[in-house]
Design a protein that fits this description.
Elements: E1 3-10, H1 23-29, E2 30-33, H2 35-41, H3 47-57, E3 61-69, H4 78-98, E4 103-107, H5 120-132, E5 138-142, H6 150-155, E6 158-161, H7 170-186, E7 191-197, H8 214-225, E8 231-237, E9 251-257, H9 260-276, E10 286-287, H10 288-297, E11 303-306, H11 322-329, E12 335-341, H12 343-352, E13 357-362, H13 364-367, E14 374-389, E15 399-410, E16 415-420, H14 430-433, E17 444-447, H15 454-457, E18 463-468
Parallel strand pairs: 1-3, 1-4, 4-5, 5-6, 10-18, 11-17, 11-18, 12-16, 12-17
Antiparallel strand pairs: 2-3, 7-9, 8-9, 13-14, 14-15, 15-16
Helix pairs in contact: 3-7, 4-5, 8-9
C-alpha cells in the first residue's frame, strides 16, 4: 500500500505590516494535527481536501501530520516558524524512520516570510528534503500568489499552483498533486524544471483570471503549452507584491519528463508573453466618494464596493473606515459594511448591549489603521461569537471564525456594519446571511476583499466598483517603500525598462 505524509504551513506575508504573525493567528484560523486534519479536509473545497479525498479514493495510507494556516499579515515570528516547521518536519522524519514513506504531499503558500528568513517556504522544503532523502517524492501545492524561488524548485519534485483567481480550483490542484505523485511512484516520468523569474510586480486586482484580463490570456496559453510532448506541469504565479523580498514577482515553472530543452523553450515563451503584457497589469480604481456616488446613482442593486486596499486576505488591517464615513456623509440608504476588524469596538458594543444605543470608537488606536479614530453613535443590533460554514465557490465545506463580533447600525439613515475581532476577508455571502442580512436586498455592499469576493458575489451584484481607499494592500504599489526587491523591476523602474 502506498503510504504518504500529508501536511503544510500556509501564511501570506505582507512585509509592509508592522504587526507580526503569532501562534494565536494560526490558532484563530487553522491549526490541526493527526486525524483532525483528515476529518476537517474530507469534502472541503481546498487543496488539502483534494489531496485527502483523492489519496483515500486510491486507498493510500495517509500519515496526517500538521496543517497550520493564518490570515495574511506581517512577518511570522521566527520562534513560531521554527516551532511549526520543526513539528511538521519532525513528524515526517518519524514517519520515514518507522516505515519508509512513499511520498510527501504538502499544502504551502509560497509567500511566507519570517524574521531573518525571506524564503520561509523554501526553507521548509529544504528541511523536508533533508529529512526524507533524495529518493522520496515531494509534491507541493502553492497559492498562485507564491513568489517562486530556486530554493523551492531544488527541494521539490513537483510544484503546482492554483490556476484561477479567485481561487476556485484549489481542490483540483490538490487532486492533481496526488495523481502526479502516483505517476512519480510508477516511474512514468523524471521531472526536469525550468524556472523563469520575471522582473514584474503586479497588483492583486490585475491578477484576476475571470474575464478579459491579461492573466486569463496567460492562463489559457499555459493550458495550450501543457499539450506539448513531455510536459508534466506548467506553473504560472503572478506573485505577491506586498512581500518586499528579493524574489517577489511573477514567475513561470515548466516541468517536463527529462526534456531540459523543451522545458527551457516553453518557459521562455511563457515568460516572454508575461513581459509583453506588463503594461496591462495596472490598477483601475475609483476614488472613495466618487465610488459611493456611483453606487447610489445605480439603477439596479446591489452594488458592491470593493475595499481592495484594506483586504485582510492580503495583510490589510481590515479596519479602515474611509468607505464607511463616505456612506454616512452621503446618507446612503440600504448600505452595509462587511467587515470592520476592531476587537476593542466589539467589546464596547458588548458593553452597550444588544438592543441598546451608545457610543463606540473605531479606528487607528485599536487597529493601527491609517485613518483617524472615530467616535460613532450606534444602535447595537446583535453581539455574539460569529462563525459560518462557507457555501460559495471558495471555501465550501470550511468554517470561517470571526470571533466575538457585533452588528451595529450607525447614521441616519442607518448603515449596517459587521464588527469582528478576527481579521477575515469578506468573500462569501454567507457571512452576511449568518447575521440576518440578505445581501440581495441591500443597495450597497462594501466588502474588504481584492478579488476573491467575485466568485460568490458577482452573480448577486448589479455592479462592482474597485475603490481607491487607504490600506496596506493598496494596488498602487508604486507608492510602497520597497527596499529589498531586486531592481530594476516593473513598474517601480518602468522608466528604465
Amino acid at each position: 500500500m502506498t503510504r504518504v505524509a500529508v501536511g503544510g504551513i500556509s501564511q501570506e506575508t505582507n512585509t509592509f505590516s508592522p504587526q507580526q504573525t503569532t501562534l494565536s493567528d494560526f490558532q484563530c484560523r487553522t491549526l490541526v494535527r493527526g486525524q483532525a486534519l483528515i476529518d476537517g479536509s474530507r469534502g472541503a473545497s481546498t487543496a488539502l481536501g483534494g489531496i485527502v479525498d483523492t489519496a483515500l479514493a486510491l486507498h493510500w495510507e495517509i500519515e496526517p501530520l500538521l496543517f497550520a494556516s493564518a490570515t495574511p499579515g506581517g512577518r511570522v515570528r521566527r520562534g513560531v516558524f521554527e516551532a511549526l516547521t520543526n513539528e511538521l518536519v519532525g513528524g515526517i522524519a518519524v514517519a520515514q524512520a518507522s516505515d519508509d514513506l512513499d511520498g510527501v504531499l504538502l499544502a504551502l503558500h509560497g509567500a511566507m516570510v519570517s524574521d531573518g528568513l525571506e524564503d520561509a517556504d523554501g526553507e521548509i522544503l529544504r528541511r523536508v528534503r533533508k529529512a526524507v532523502g533524495p529518493g522520496v517524492p515531494i509534491v507541493v501545492v502553492l497559492d498562485s500568489h507564491a513568489n517562486l524561488t530556486a530554493k523551492m524548485v531544488a527541494a521539490a519534485d513537483i510544484l503546482l499552483a492554483y490556476e484561477t483567481y479567485p481561487h476556485i480550483d484549489t481542490y483540483a490542484r490538490g487532486s492533481q498533486a496526488v495523481r502526479l505523485m502516483e505517476r512519480l511512484r510508477r516511474g512514468d516520468f523524471r521531472p526536469v524544471h525550468a524556472l523563469r523569474q520575471m522582473p514584474l510586480l503586479s497588483p492583486l486586482t490585475a491578477q484576476r483570471t475571470d474575464g478579459a484580463t491579461p492573466m486569463a490570456e496567460l492562463a489559457e496559453m499555459a493550458v495550450d503549452l501543457r499539450r506539448e510532448r513531455d510536459v508534466v506541469a506548467i506553473t504560472l504565479t503572478p506573485g505577491f507584491p506586498y512581500s518586499d523580498i528579493r524574489d517577489a514577482g511573477m514567475a513561470v515553472l515548466v516541468t517536463t519528463n527529462a526534456d531540459e530543452r523543451c522545458a527551457n523553450e516553453l518557459a521562455d515563451r511563457l515568460a516572454d508573453a508575461c513581459w509583453e503584457r506588463r503594461s496591462r497589469f495596472v490598477a483601475e480604481l475609483t476614488p472613495v466618494r466618487e465610488a459611493v456616488a456611483q453606487a447610489m446613482a445605480a439603477e439596479h442593486r446591489p452594488v458592491v464596493l470593493a475595499d481592495v486596499a484594506d483586504n485582510p486576505g492580503a495583510g490589510g488591517t481590515g479596519s479602515e473606515t474611509a468607505i464607511l464615513q463616505a456612506l454616512l456623509d452621503a446618507r446612503a440608504v440600504g448600505s452595509v459594511v462587511a467587515t470592520i476588524a476592531d476587537e476593542r469596538a466589539v467589546r464596547q458594543a458588548a458593553t452597550i448591549g444588544a438592543g441598546q444605543r451608545g457610543v463606540l470608537r473605531l479606528g487607528a488606536a485599536a487597529s493601527r489603521s491609517s485613518g483617524p479614530v472615530r467616535e460613532i453613535a450606534a444602535f447595537v443590533r446583535w453581539v455574539g461569537d460569529l462563525s459560518f460554514a462557507g457555501q460559495g465557490p471558495m471555501g465550501a465545506g470550511t468554517t470561517t471564525r470571526l470571533g466575538p463580533s457585533a452588528v451595529i447600525e450607525v447614521g441616519d439613515p442607518p448603515v449596517e456594519v459587521i464588527l469582528s475581532s478576527n481579521r477575515v476577508q469578506s468573500l462569501d455571502p454567507q457571512l452576511l446571511r449568518s447575521v440576518g442580512i440578505a445581501p440581495e436586498e441591500r443597495r450597497i455592499i462594501a466588502l474588504k476583499s481584492s478579488v476573491h469576493f467575485r466568485a460568490a458575489f458577482e452573480p448577486l451584484a448589479a455592479a462592482i466598483i474597485e475603490v481607491d481607499g487607504p490600506g496596506r494592500s493598496s494596488p498602487n504599489i508604486q507608492q510602497l517603500p520597497y527596499r529589498r526587491v531586486r531592481r530594476p523591476i516593473w513598474p517601480l523602474d518602468c522608466d528604465v525598462m
